[in-house]
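Lab channel / #folding
Pinned by the channel admin:
"Please post every new chain as: sequence first, then the structure tokens as a reply. Keep commentary short and put observations after the output so the thread stays searchable."

First post following the new format, from NK:
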Amino acid sequence: MVSETESLIAYTFLKNKIIDPGFCTLCGACEIACPLGALHLKTEKVERLTDCSKGLDLCPICYEICPHSEALLLRSLSFVADAPVKNEAVGYYRKIVLAQAGDSQLRAQSLGGAVVTSLLKYGMESGFFDSAIVTQAESQNPSKPVPKVAIVPDDILSAIGSKFFPSSVATAYGSAVYGYGQKNIAFVGVPCHVLAVRKLEAWQHKISSNLKIIFGLFCFGTFSLNSMLTYITKRYNILPSDILRMRLSSKFVIQTRDGETEIPLPEIDDHILPSCRVCTDFTAELADISIGSGYPLEGWSTVIIRTKTGEDFFYEAVEKGIVNTWVIEEEPKVFERLMVAAMEKRTNALKKAKEMERTSGLHPVLLLRESSVLSNSRIDEIMTRSVKTVSQDISVSQFLALVPKFRHIAYPLVDKKNVPIGWVTLEEAAKVEKHLRVKTSVNKIAIRKLVTVYADETALVAFKKMSSHNIGRVLVIDRTNPETILGIVTKMDLMHTLTKQF
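Reply from TO:
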């Protein structure tokens, strides 16, 4: 039986809700946040070294700092919420551009545009930050990621390449502060890593002030190290030490000295970490700068600039010729792929989270719920007023060409009298085979479920309608003239309303 003192210690919740069900992604945030040093990462599990309840009467920190708990999510979101654009697929941002390293040698070593490497190298050489938290491959086992505190530019170069297994980068951040005494640290991580360090900031933990800038990496999900490598060895007779490089495309590709082995993604689906199945974040939405593939454009990366800190640093690097940029509006296929991938991950994760909630209770990603904040906010205070509509006569090809320009993923469909009759979404358009897009009208792929609200109603009304109809947006119409569109409210708008309380 758990004692009364023990029940007030956050580790009890961390163990019962995160560690034991298998949701831990081994970032190490709980280890560095614990005031007693009671937690430690070992192999693939968090271990409790001492009974912290004997030294503390009440301590919520390890559970609240965990990126998979429901705590501090809105406070963490507030770090990027001043960006001018709110997008349902990729979150808040200031600009989205395509970029590549100005150094051709760096590009040759990279699978993409080498943007992360270039920015880290420049930031360290220019003194913008004094160190960086990166992940490199273990020398004896190249498939195993090892977090590293990079304190010289050459350390950055050793971390080139994608990693597909958990890395305790938050622990490395703690080492940079406590062990190396670094004061201005750049942090590189996937979405859950980024959320962990944002939670440290939201908590105002003493080591969070050493954080200078966060680079987030696009992420489809992470595999369990031991489970995945054991499967690869048994199924394909490839030892971990034989693996030179791995990459993810339409298949999971393993490169060895004997060549490449392609593994269909459904075959290894069982080895994805449980927490990744309910993660809605593809583009590291809380980072200062998010970076990922520019597919299908070879040699380029997609860069999402979210904060003023990220914007100033990035364009200083552009001015110095460290990175070259290109407008993403000129590459609609890249923009389409980005938005579709982000929405697919979000949709699948929310579906899985709802399934889990029915059996195990509230899940953190289902954060948007009824609240007094929503009931006290009017729709005309939060809606997007400048609405781009789509004529029912245009083709899918024409629709996809305009999406990068207006940067939304859904548009009201109107008839010849400009009366709203449905929605056209990027997701539905992307399903049309490429050779049929020119001849297919958006009218054929439109979603006819048109749920509406009035401008003088509360945000809570919009939320309830979205929930009951299982949709992500509602159309705001004029109460006196229902055929007139006044605006749009999305779930992103509702989340933004909640962040304002902080």
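NK: Confidence is low (pLDDT under 50) at residues 1-6.
TO: also worth noting, The first helix runs from residue 4 to 7.
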